[in-house]
Amino acid sequence: MIDEHDVARRLVTIRERIAAAGGGDVRIVAVTKGFGPDAVSAAMACGLRDIGESYAQETLAKLAPSPPDARPEERPTVHFIGGLQRNKVRKLAPVVDVWQSIDRLELVEEVARRAPGARVLLQVDLSGEVTKGGCPPDAVEPLLGGALDRGLVVVGLMGIAPRGEPELARPGFRLLRSLVDRFSLPECSMGMTADLEVAVEEGTTMVRVGTALFGPRPPRR
Ligand SMILES: *Cc1c(COP(=O)(O)O)cnc(C)c1O
User: Fold this and answer.
1) What pLDDT, in 10s, does the model give residues 26-71?
2) Which of 29, 45, 69, 137 lies 20 to 30 Å from 179, alpha-carbon distance?
3) What residues make up the domain containing 192?
């Protein structure tokens, strides 16, 4: 059971880490994957509105589509940050507000069809690890063009650093930030629990934090 007071305390620490690294206006996406709906409520109770999820089934089980009459402060903004299969887009569309893992034209087309005008981030491969997804840096431009042509709102780019020492994340984060600037996009989604200082130093606008907010994730079944 997630205790909202624990989350509030940990949030203070995260904000201190961000500030100490020189970050001002950095958005925190609370990554609730692996936890129950209580993690979502605890995050919301602490004033976090951005919720990140990685697995389609789990997202659908945990987060209902917001009722049309929900007040804005009751309604999370749901970010899908995990590897996405095209055949999951239709079911996810009523629940997901921001698609952060768009890395190929097939997904651009399907999201444009099932969630017209949706907000997306294009995921760029920063690690060379196939399992993490993301398009090669030189594929960003054509993918961006394709997304805009199909009416999607491209708010930024997202990247996941390679595993290991936080410092190993720096070259990839620097590359991601340079691409965000090249295409004049507002959002640069990079940095997780282990490497958020490096991400702040390299100009993130949005860190995606799970463990540092909720504690260790229960193993995936
Ligand atoms: C799980 C996950 C996170 C959060 O990871 P923590 O190390 O728990 O902060 C961030 N981004 C993505 C894409 C994830 O899958």
Assistant:
1) 999 999 999 999 999 999 999 999 999 999 999 999 998 777 777 7
2) 29
3) 4-214
